[in-house]
């Protein structure tokens, strides 16, 4: 399954490709990638600091970092789904803070995981690996919310299982 296919980007860009061709579609996706990454980071940081200007600056630093811009300019559409990384963390925070329920959390996380997988298997693997590490650190540091973290870990495992079942045709 480790390949360079981009099924979801191709589906998103299909109308543009049909109308103006593959070069225009790729240029548009390359143009939108940093802006989406910046928006995802802005949403997360805005939730954390509750102030718009630091969130705008943090979103800018993430979305328009040399890493994202460099890959986008080089035509690496694998990073199109980078906006989902901060949004996944935002989703976890919303659940731990009890702003969304367990069913909504599991459903949204499953959707995010499937979307991330279909955008880029590499980012999916990296997101899952570093997400597990971050949850481990949160478990060690935040004794007061361990029950909520444990619930989030269990629901994340369920979401991961559901995502694997949903994307299994791609794996097959």
> Helices and strands: which structural class?
mainly alpha
Helix content: over 70%
What overall form do the CA principal axes indicate?
globular
Radius of gyration: 17 Å
DSSP summary, beta strand count: 0
For the biggest sheet, the summary is: none
Arithmetic mean pLDDT: 91
Distance between the termini: 8 Å
- The helix/strand series, from N terminus to C terminus, equals HHHHHHHH
Strand content: under 5%
Low-confidence stretches: none
How many helix segments? 8
Task: Report what the structure shows.
81% of the residues lie in helices and 0% in strands. The protein has 8 helices and no strands.
Defining key terms:
mainly alpha, 172 residues, globular
Indicate the topology.
Layout: H1 7-20, H2 22-49, H3 52-63, H4 66-73, H5 84-96, H6 102-119, H7 121-141, H8 146-171
Helix pairs in contact: 1-2, 2-3, 2-4, 2-5, 5-6, 6-7, 6-8
Provide a compact summary of the structure.
The chain is mainly alpha-helical and 172 residues long.
